[in-house]
Amino acid sequence: MTTTPAASAEPEPAPEPAERGLRDRKKRETRHRLAHVATLLFIERGFEQVTIAEIAEAAHVSKMTVSNYFPLKEDLVFDAGQSVLDSLARTVRERTPGESALHALRRAYLATLGEQHPLNGRCTPGFARLVHDSPRLRAREREIDEQREAALAAALTEATRAAAEDPTPDLSAAQLACVHRVLHRTARALIRQDTPEDALVERLAELARTAFAVLEPALGGYAIRPANDGA
């Protein structure tokens, strides 16, 4: 009686950097394509009326593939993900020396008004109407807002080296994030009304200046980046 040698238990070699890069790029492309196909279907028929199976069929993939990339159906719409959650915190982290958190957020918001950007809430009319008409999407967007505010509070805590028991970063983040929620809500309403581009930008810029000015007495000098901090 003969026996065959046992199969090798050696692990598979790790993929080369170029191979990993190709895989990552393909994953990003697949994610973007799924979100794009789904959003078009949602805009055409309504979020609640489109199933995962229909999205998979339109994208020529399996239902499992859609679910693997997007465990929550709502995130097929809000696919920007981390860039939105981190938008306010990143602005604070990247503020210039001598600049406060409020001044950085105001500057960055006004600078992005000419384009769709995670900071300003601008989008297409179809997307604005889609979210407005879906209770589930509005609820998911509120969750994203809460997570973005929490990330901002963490960035302010780090920037000011606040003690764990200090409520100032949380209170400040709540006020600054509220300004952005009002600005986003106003932007979406104007977009749903098909407001011309020039008028849209002008009204949002005016509202932003007013809203940040309201907070200026309390937060204008908060979390100023030291002039010698080049990190």
UniProtKB/TrEMBL annotation:
<dbReference type="InterPro" id="IPR009057">
    <property type="entry name" value="Homeodomain-like_sf"/>
</dbReference>
<dbReference type="InterPro" id="IPR001647">
    <property type="entry name" value="HTH_TetR"/>
</dbReference>
<dbReference type="Pfam" id="PF00440">
    <property type="entry name" value="TetR_N"/>
</dbReference>
<protein>
    <submittedName>
        <fullName>TetR/AcrR family transcriptional regulator</fullName>
    </submittedName>
</protein>
<keyword id="KW-0238">DNA-binding</keyword>
<keyword id="KW-0805">Transcription regulation</keyword>
<keyword id="KW-0804">Transcription</keyword>
<feature type="domain" description="HTH tetR-type">
    <location>
        <begin position="28"/>
        <end position="88"/>
    </location>
</feature>
<feature type="DNA-binding region" description="H-T-H motif">
    <location>
        <begin position="51"/>
        <end position="70"/>
    </location>
</feature>
<dbReference type="InterPro" id="IPR050109">
    <property type="entry name" value="HTH-type_TetR-like_transc_reg"/>
</dbReference>
<feature type="compositionally biased region" description="Low complexity">
    <location>
        <begin position="1"/>
        <end position="11"/>
    </location>
</feature>
<feature type="region of interest" description="Disordered">
    <location>
        <begin position="1"/>
        <end position="30"/>
    </location>
</feature>
